[in-house]
Design goal:
Layout (H helix, E strand, L loop, with lengths): L2 H29 L11 H29 L1 H5 L1 H13 L5 H29 L4 H33 L2 H20 L5 H10 L5 H17 L7 H22 L17 H23 L7 H23 L7 H17 L2 H12 L7 H47 L2 H14 L16
Helix pairs in contact: 1-4, 1-5, 1-6, 1-7, 1-10, 2-5, 2-15, 4-5, 4-7, 5-15, 6-11, 6-14, 10-15, 11-13, 12-13, 12-14, 12-15, 12-16, 14-15
Length: 444
C-alpha cells in the first residue's frame, strides 16, 4: 500500500478513536449525570441518545456519498473532523438532554461525511487489485475497530481523571485527523472532476441536481446494492447491542440482578482492562480473516462470523452465572467466548469487501455506493441500540446475550440468498471469483 492509503487508514484510526472516546465518555457521563447537575438516566434513554447518532449517520451518509463523488473523496474527508470537534466541545458544556441529543446528531454527521469518502477512496485505489482490496478492507475495519476500541479503553480513565473537560481534549484529536487527511492523502480525482465539470457545462443547477439524483436512484435500484443489506444490518445490530449498553451496564452495580456477576459495578481500570482484552481478540480476528479473502468466499466468512457470535453469547451467559460453579466451567466458557468473538470479527471485512466489489459496476459513483456501508451500519446500530435498551432493562447482561442470539438468528435467514447473488456478481465480474484469485488451496 502507498503512503496515501496508509494515511487514510491512520486518519481512520484517529477519527474513530475520537468517536469511541466520545461515545464511551458520554455513557460514563450519563451514568453519573446527577453528580454534574443533570437528571437520572434510564437504559432506554441511553438507547435513544445512542440511536440518534446512527439516525444522523444513516440519513446523511447517502448525501455525503454523492457529494464525495462530485467534489472529490479527499475534499470531503476534511468535513468530518470539523463536525466532530464542534460536537465534543458542546458535549462538555452541557447536561441538557436536548442539547446532548443535538451533539449526537453532529457526531453522526461527522461519521456520515467521513466514511463514504474514505471507503470511496479505498475502492478507487484498489480497483482491479483483489489482494490489495482484501488487505485494505480488513485494515480499514481494523483501524475503525482499533480506534473505537482504544477509545473504549481510554475513555473511563480519562473521564475519571478530567471529568467533562475530557471532551475538550477530544476536539484536539479531531484536529489531528483533519491534518492527516489534509497533508497525508493525495487527491486522485482531479481529472475525473474536470470531466464531470465539462459534462455539466451549460446545464442549469436544477438540471445538474436532477442528473445526480437520477444516477443515485439508479444505484439504489440495482439488485447488487442491496446484496448484503438484511444480513449486514442484523450483524451490526448484534454489535450495536453491546456498543450502546456494555459500558453503561458494567459501570454501575445493579440490585435487580444480584445473580449476574457481570453487573456488580466494575471500576474504570477493570473496564479498561476488559476492553483491552476484547480489542486484542477482535483485532486478531480481523487480521486473520482479512487475509483469508483468497481462500474463502465473503459469504462463507460471514456465516462463520454469525456462528461465532452465537458461541460467544452462550459462553458469556455461563461466565455471567459462574458463581458457585466448578472453576473449570467458567474458564472453558471464557475461552469459548473469546473464540466466538475472534470468529465474529471476520464478518465485518467480508461485508465491506462485498460492497467494494459492487462498486465495480459504478466506477464514477464509488462514494455513493460506499456510503451505503454507513446506511447498513446505521440501521443495524439503531435496531441494536433499541433492542439493547429494552433487553438490558428486562434482564440486564442476560438480556443483552439473549438479544444477541436472537438477532444473529435473523441474520442467518437471508444468507443463502446472499450467497446466490454473490455467485451472480462473480459471473458478471469474473475477476472477483475465487478461482481467479492468485492463491492456491481450497475455496469454501
Amino acid at each position: 500500500m502507498d503512503r496515501s492509503l496508509w494515511a487514510v487508514l491512520g486518519g481512520t484510526f484517529t477519527l474513530r478513536f475520537s468517536t469511541g472516546l466520545t461515545g464511551t465518555m458520554l455513557a460514563v457521563y450519563l451514568a453519573k449525570l446527577p453528580e454534574h447537575g443533570g437528571p437520572v438516566i434510564e437504559p432506554t434513554t441511553l438507547a435513544y441518545l445512542h440511536s440518534t447518532f446512527y439516525i444522523s449517520e444513516l440519513v446523511l451518509s447517502p448525501l455525503f456519498g454523492v457529494l464525495s463523488d462530485r467534489f472529490g473523496h479527499h475534499r470531503m474527508m476534511l468535513v468530518g473532523p470539523v463536525f466532530g470537534a464542534i460536537a465534543v466541545i458542546l458535549t462538555g458544556l452541557t447536561t441538557n438532554l436536548f442539547v446532548l441529543g443535538g451533539t449526537r446528531i453532529l457526531e453522526g454527521a461527522s461519521t456520515a461525511a467521513s466514511v463514504p469518502s474514505i471507503l470511496g477512496y479505498i475502492a478507487l485505489v484498489t480497483a482491479g487489485n483483489e489482494l490489495l482490496r482484501g488487505q485494505a478492507a480488513a485494515r480499514f475495519e481494523g483501524a475503525t475497530l482499533a480506534g473505537i476500541g482504544v477509545g473504549l479503553i481510554v475513555a473511563p480513565l480519562l473521564f475519571a481523571a478530567l471529568g467533562p473537560i475530557a471532551f475538550f481534549l477530544n476536539a484536539g484529536v479531531y484536529a489531528i485527523s483533519f491534518l492527516i487527511y489534509r497533508y497525508g492523502v493525495e487527491d486522485r480525482q482531479g481529472a475525473e472532476r474536470a470531466e464531470r465539470k465539462a459534462a455539466g457545462a451549460g446545464l442549469k443547477t436544477v438540471e445538474r441536481r436532477k442528473m445526480t439524483l437520477d444516477r443515485y436512484v439508479t444505484l439504489l435500484r440495482s439488485s447488487h446494492v442491496w446484496l448484503l443489506a438484511p444480513t449486514w444490518i442484523a450483524v451490526n445490530a448484534s454489535i450495536g447491542l453491546w456498543f450502546s449498553q456494555a459500558i453503561f451496564q458494567f459501570s454501575r452495580r445493579s440490585l435487580r440482578f444480584p445473580d449476574q456477576i457481570l453487573m456488580r459495578g466494575f471500576s474504570a481500570v477493570e473496564i479498561s482492562l476488559g476492553a483491552v482484552a476484547i480489542g486484542v481478540v477482535f483485532g486478531a480476528g480481523l487480521l486473520y480473516w482479512g487475509n483469508r479473502f483468497k481462500t474463502y468466499r465473503r459469504t462463507t466468512i460471514i456465516l462463520f462470523g454469525i456462528l461465532g457470535g452465537a458461541v460467544m453469547a452462550v459462553g458469556g451467559f455461563v461466565v455471567n452465572h459462574a458463581e458457585g460453579l466448578p472453576i473449570v466451567l467458567p474458564v472453558l466458557a471464557a475461552i469459548a467466548t473469546a473464540a466466538g468473538l475472534f470468529v465474529l470479527a471476520g464478518a465485518t471485512p467480508a461485508a465491506l469487501g462485498l460492497l467494494a466489489d459492487m462498486s465495480e459496476a459504478f466506477p464514477t459513483d464509488r462514494g455513493a455506493i460506499m456510503g451505503l456501508y454507513s446506511v447498513f451500519l446505521g440501521l443495524g446500530q439503531i435496531v441494536g441500540s433499541l433492542i439493547g435498551g429494552y433487553a438490558a432493562e428486562w434482564r440486564g447482561i442476560d438480556g443483552l446475550l439473549i438479544g444477541t442470539v436472537a438477532v444473529l438468528a435473523i441474520a442467518l435467514l437471508p444468507l443463502s440468498r446472499l450467497r446466490q447473488q454473490e455467485h451472480q456478481l462473480e459471473l458478471e465480474y469474473p475477476e472477483l471469483a475465487p478461482e481467479a484469485r492468485p492463491a492456491a488451496g481450497h475455496h469454501a
